[in-house]
Amino acid sequence: MKKDLLTLSDVNASELKNIIFLAMKIKKKPYKFLHKLEYKNIILLFEKPSLRTRLSFEVGMKELGGDAIFYSKEHSTLGYKETYADFGKIASTYAAGIVCRLYEQRNVEEIALSTNKPVINALTNQHHPMQAIGDFMTIFEKKKKFNVTIAYLGDAKNNVTHSLMEAAKLLGAKINIACPPGYEPLKEIYEENKEHTEIFRKPEEAVANADVIYTDSWMSYQISPQLLQKRKKDLAKYQVNAALLAKAPPACLVMHCLPATRNQEITTEVLEGKQSIVFEQAANRLHSTKAVLLKMLR
Length: 298
Description:
41% of the residues lie in helices and 14% in strands. The model has no long low-confidence stretch (mean pLDDT 96). Helix 1 (13-28) crosses helix 5, helix 1 (13-28) crosses helix 12 (278-297) and helix 5 crosses helix 12. It is globular, with a radius of gyration of 19 Å. The longest helix has 20 residues, at 278-297. It has a five-stranded parallel sheet with strand order 7-6-5-8-9. It has a four-stranded parallel sheet with strand order 2-1-3-4, sandwiched between helices. The protein has two domains: 8-127 and 283-297, Aspartate/ornithine carbamoyltransferase (Rossmann fold, 3-Layer(aba) Sandwich); 131-281, Aspartate/ornithine carbamoyltransferase (Rossmann fold, 3-Layer(aba) Sandwich). The protein has helices at 13-28, 52-63, 84-91, 105-114, 129-143, 159-171, 187-193, 203-207, 228-235, 242-245, 268-271, 278-297; strands spanning 41-46, 67-72, 97-101, 119-121, 149-153, 174-178, 197-200, 212-215, 253-256. It is α/β, with parallel strands linked by helices.
């Protein structure tokens, strides 16, 4: 029976921990895994821009002995001459798995239903499971535990927030969300994960007992540029800066999934400060991606 990773609801707690622990082993001794996916290919169907995700899948497959073929929706007939199901049926005859970075979750799900090969969600507007896996790997490396408190600040109607909430439920962590009204997580995702999630309006309350402060861009890919000024005004007090960091415990770490708009959602001082683990977090995407590929394609 094939296994997809469309959201983190597709794995249980044990499976998620196994992926994270495997990622840490790969990071420590990458040479031991050089030929594990030899002669296997994946197809990367991307509709959104990408740095860490695309590179982690392409480099990851090559370092595991396989290969990755990048296919941009921009140069395809998807959506007007060809359905997503058609794409899934054809692409799966050429490769061991399909990786999708698309706007709509329903399109990834349509591809998954059309094929008997594994499908991995590399980001949609609603979910970003690959990010959350790498994030909790980084947290475990630093804190030696999963049951941490993460204060997420800013726009929480966000794919990263949603996947962090799902991971927190599986791993026994807590998410303190600080956001203004109208920027809360999607209702259905909040309801599924509310036992591990609390919403605050005052950022200083959310960070008071935090092990990690986390933020993301205020202007995600699906947000219209015309809304920038409104969002900057609405979210201004949720900026991660030195004054806010001083209200968190001294051992609190700072995370950001990148790309960051410096001095908007986070100041350069904090992003590059001694409590930031942002660039280690980004580097770990390679190792966690390799772990997911090994678990799903072998």
